[in-house]
Amino acid sequence: MAKTVLDYNAAVITPITNGISLPVPISPAGLGIATASVFIDPTIPGAVNNRVELKASIGLRFVGAGNIRTLVRIWRAGKEIYYGLQTNLFDDNIIINVEMVDVAPLGVQNYQLIIENQTPATTAFVSGPLVFSATAYSG
CA 35, CA 73: separation in Å to the nearest integer? Predict the structure, then answer.
């Protein structure tokens, strides 16, 4: 069965490494780093059987030795729908790629990308690239 694109939205905060320098707070505090919204039109046939594909690329820079862990979360309408823990042992600069599929209610859906540092006494920065996109499909 053919899929129909209902809506698409993307936030390109920076397309390059070292394009920004946002300190990542230590848990339980989190930092909202990007948002994306899609509209799932209830008048479109098949919209009730939707899927929203969420993709993010997050460039990080680490300061400090040892095992640095970062947690990435995605929220929809103020509720967490995804989280993933990333561990880094060796590199000072990495790119995390996240992909998630959501079955969303009809109407406007607002997504928020959040990151937090899970390792006390270390420092992490969102350094870029930083891109977050949402594509809503029906069918």
Answer: 12
